[in-house]
Automatic annotation (TrEMBL):
This is Alpha/beta hydrolase. Keywords: Hydrolase. It comes from Nocardiopsis changdeensis. GO terms for molecular function: hydrolase activity. Residues 23-257 form the AB hydrolase-1 domain. It comes from the Bacteria. SUPFAM superfamilies: alpha/beta-Hydrolases. Pfam families: Abhydrolase_1.
Amino acid sequence: MDVKKMFEWRGHRIAWGLRGAGPPLVMCHGTPWSSRLWSPFADALARDFTVYLWDMPGYGASSKDPGNPVDLGVQGEAFAALLDHWGLERPRVIAHDYGGAVSLRAALLHDAAYLALCLVDVVALRPWGSPFFRLVRENASVFARLPDAVHEGALRAYIAGASHRGLRPEDLDALVGPWLGEEGKEAFYRQIAQADERFTEEVEPHLAELPFPVHIVWGTEDTWIPVDRAHRLREAIPGSTLSLVPEAGHLIQLDAPVALADELRRWSATRPPVS
């Protein structure tokens, strides 16, 4: 699914697209990914829903202006503004990685309302970030000066580590590609430099206040955000449900695509209770 439409917001150009017909369903990606990671699942769900995909500012086909912030605070506001732009009042939302914090901030801080929320291996509870992510965050200006070949090698190793089963060369190339070249390299280190756990700390005390059903899906072999966070998240959100996917790492979309598709199909077919 292409994201060729553009939403102008506070100097950002946010790429988005939609497909299908039916109730609205929105998919949120994480870092260092883009909507492309969700595209095959969006195509499948488009048989029953109008599925919306978008690239966060600084990611994918969205603008990467170095003068514009791309932190989680900005992303949460951008998502709420985008939902308003689309005219969606209570869509279903599926979020992965950073998209978890983005969707939670939009709901808890910016009055976004969902029919139901599915959180897939998400950034939501401290601590978060792989060891490499934290190292880069603490030394972003140094990493940004790496020679291009060294940057690409480190990037490939970093992204490959998100998979438990191992990535096909073509999948690894697709995930690495957007972060190469001068613009991509600068954008990659910029988004990590602006990562800050205060953005999740701000919403953690309010997770119990979420007014819609929450379902959590997690790969049991996720080394970026270990599965203990899934159990903690379920405890933090009363009434939430949890499904664990074996033999899947953080890139659950590529490690266990069939299992994840089945899980999302079951979740999307469930009618949430009337609030």
